[in-house]
């Protein structure tokens, strides 16, 4: 359940955090074979290294770059919302055994971030920081929990720097296979550059004043900046917030006063937020433009099963809706 009636999100997060830490400490005390974090990583006698990624997006990229040289595990599952992820007791054990822990950073991991600090302090890579996403690269300086907007994967060019850092982290942890990691990371960043070129070209047919859309939460600011769109979410950067009547009213105003007809729901946010988008669309007699992947990939056999697939799917859905909205407007007398 994403939203609660509690007035203090901070209190709730704190209690969840404390519970997660207690669970993880207990498990670490009772678990056998957790491994000594001081032992050298990538020792051939220990077999392939283990890379643990927090989100499904990072897990996919890590797999592409790992090839057959490293074992990649993910903490979050398909469709789970990282902002309100509730740590599972097993997570601490998984994280503590990893040779490399890949985290997005910018407070995306929220509660899980506290567990990482406790059990994977020496193996953890904060990718936003490692990729030097700072200054003008980042959006917002302290928009949520004192951190910038964490949705950096929504800009493929920015995310190429993250992918490069994933290769760097693997090469460092497993020098015997460094050449492979470096080569696959370069290959993957080149695919990200192609993706960026394709998305840019796809938006070329949409006039600048018809590029406004509404989504369930503010996950698309980096995408909006990269492709010159104006995107409004029901709530802010994190889904861990209750939408106010004023926020909902401002969406109605966008539809009513500015003729915005492109409204989307998301796969990894709560039904509450998606239902608000549906209600606003319904009131205006507009069909929902489609479902976007924001903070989680889709199931492996769906178009959103990979990061590249997710971005291509989102772009196609958005372009289709914006084109239809444009045709609707030009049909009007
Ligand atoms: Zn998000």
Q: Identify low-pLDDT runs.
A: 1-18, 23-44
Mean pLDDT: 87
Q: What hetero molecules are bound to the protein chains?
A: zinc ion
N-to-C span: 46 Å
Query: Any idea what the radius of gyration is?
Result: 21 Å
The CATH architecture of the largest domain comes to 3-Layer(aba) Sandwich
Gist of the model:
This protein is of the alpha/beta class and 333 residues long.
Overview of the structural elements:
The protein has two domains: 10-39 and 47-193, Nitrogenase molybdenum iron protein domain (Rossmann fold), CATH 3.40.50; 201-331, Nitrogenase molybdenum iron protein domain (Rossmann fold). The strands form three sheets. A four-stranded parallel beta sheet has the order 2-1-3-4, sandwiched between helices. A two-stranded parallel sheet has the order 5-6. It is globular and about 65 Å long. The longest helix has 26 residues, at 178-203. With 333 residues, the protein is α/β, with parallel strands linked by helices. Helices cover 47% and strands 11% of the residues. Strand 3, helix 4 and strand 4 form a beta-alpha-beta unit. Bound molecules: zinc ion (ZN). Residues 83, 151, 217, 219, 294-295 line the site of zinc ion (ZN). Zinc ion binds next to loops.
